[in-house]
Amino acid sequence: MQATPETDTEVIRTLDRLFRRETGRLVASLVRKLGPGRLTLAEDIAQEAMLAAVRTWPYDGLPDNPAAWLTRVAANKAIDLIRQENTARGAAEALTPSETTSEATSETTIGTHDDQLRLLMLCCHGDVPEMDRLILTLNICFGFSAREVARLFLKEPSAISARLTRAKTKLQSSRPDFDWPTPMELDTRISSTLKVIYLAFSLGYSPREGAQAVRQDTALEALHMIELFAGDAAHRRGDIYALAALLCLQASRLESRTDSDGRFVPLKAQKREMWDKALISRGFHYLAHAKESEVLSRYHLEAGIAAQHASAPSFEETDWVGICNLYKTLEEMTGSPVVVLNHAAALMQAGEAGAAIAKIKTLEDHGLLSNDIYFHTAKAEILLMSGDKEMAKAAFKRAQECTGTDTEITHLEHRLSTCL
Fold this sequence. Notes:
Elements: H1 5-34, H2 39-60, H3 66-85, H4 89-94, H5 97-104, H6 110-123, H7 130-142, H8 146-153, H9 157-173, H10 183-205, H11 216-230, H12 238-251, H13 277-290, H14 298-311, H15 320-334, H16 337-349, H17 353-363, H18 373-386, H19 389-400, H20 406-417
């Protein structure tokens, strides 16, 4: 397909989508071929394949099968690099373009899925400290940059980059294998894997910066990964089913979170007829399985909150008291300032203005939230609902000073106008 001015935008969109979705798959496939001790090499090759697409697709047009094209280019680069190093000659001979092409054209094969799950488990290796393994997995398996991860954890990008380098060095020095973890290792790795999938979905559902209000491909890739776990009879765990329920229920609202111009639409204004009923049904199916577990996780509680929203006929008819009770338990379980913030918002909707404002005040001196756009926006909305327009206006202005997506900043400008 020859490139035209009309296809340029399509190429850019496709590249962005594939970078998020395919980088982890390419690395997983290469690690299986080259071995986990060459993780950095596999990552470099995947990046080179992406750069090759950036250089050629705007001029040559999109290939018929972009994923297969990327996999073939990555395979060829792997062969070249290994031959240049004059090492792993046997792996180079085994890694032929014909093999990788057949893998790329069958994205839904069990082997491809297995590679992705194995890469997730590899990056969540127990020898790597938990925070570092979360950063490493978000970067390698989901394609998030150090800057994006820094925004998520409210850290400096340089600090995240240092952690990322340390995690890669530690992982490769541990000489891990690409086999499925032993039962003894599995619990620790699954716990970290669930956290990573949860965080990756969150970054797709509510990006921290950029032009897009929602990154659907990122959110759906995270949903895809948790459903792989939930669909495996060997992993009948309540927290896995609960996270699958949560992400299905949240993903059901993806289409309604933006309008036809790509602008953010808050929950209250969303058109519920746009919610994906099939995903809601799957969410309740997983939730039923999750309730069979004797262990209550945060994912159970968050899935319960999402289920309340999914089953409510309207925003006004939502069981806000029930949601507040779930947030109360979740707050006691986690102590998370983000949970406290969401609890405050729910209390306001339940008619408990005094309790909501009191909770907000407990967060005002919390260092992690001082430059968080969501905190100042939620604070402004609560103050506005309580009738304090001046304080709400100040909070909206403070939110505008924080980093956010373009559509969030536009939304803030609109909300600020309601205070004037």
